[in-house]
């Protein structure tokens, strides 16, 4: 199945809230795993505007100090990483860059 096939990635707020609670309960409290952070629009656009990009893949990663992060890379229509292009990490962590309380973080 290629990435060019249509897939609806959307989820309801209720379902997304349950998913984030599940993660916090299973992983974050016990392991200190990355719970949330924010990236700029420019960061994702730098990946998406590259020729041949059909999707974005994320990898769980760790900074040199051991704190969790994510690495994002563009993918082609076959799902292969476009590793010669733009790769991003370095989110703004929460805290201090947190959202007001809502169903995703409560």
Radius of gyration: 15 Å
What is the beta-strand fraction? 15-25%
Helical content band: 25-40%
What ranges have pLDDT less than 50 throughout 5 or more consecutive residues?
none
Mean pLDDT: 87
| Classification by helices and strands | alpha+beta
Helix segment tally: 2
What overall geometry do the principal axes of the alpha carbons give? globular
H/E element string?
HEHEEEE
Distance N to C terminus: 36 Å
Main sheet: strands, sense, barrel: 3 strands, antiparallel
Strand neighbour order, sheet with most strands: 2-3-4
- Would you count the extended β strands for me? 5
What does this structure look like?
The protein is an alpha+beta fold. The chain contains two helices and five strands, in the order αβαββββ. It has a three-stranded antiparallel sheet with strand order 2-3-4, covered by helices on one side. Strands 1-5 form a two-stranded antiparallel ribbon. A hairpin with a 5-residue loop joins strand 2 and strand 3. The N and C termini lie far apart (36 Å). The mean pLDDT is 87.
């Amino acid at each position: 199945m290629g990435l060019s096939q249509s897939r609806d990635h959307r989820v309801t707020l209720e379902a997304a809230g349950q998913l984030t609670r599940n993660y916090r309960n299973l992983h974050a409290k016990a392991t200190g795993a990355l719970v949330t952070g924010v990236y700029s629009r420019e960061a994702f656009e730098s990946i998406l505007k590259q020729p041949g990009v059909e999707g974005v893949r994320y990898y769980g990663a760790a900074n040199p100090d051991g704190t969790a992060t994510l690495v994002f890379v563009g993918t082609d229509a076959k799902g292969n990483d476009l590793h010669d292009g733009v790769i991003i990490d370095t989110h703004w962590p929460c805290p201090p860059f947190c959202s007001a309380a809502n169903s995703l973080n409560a």
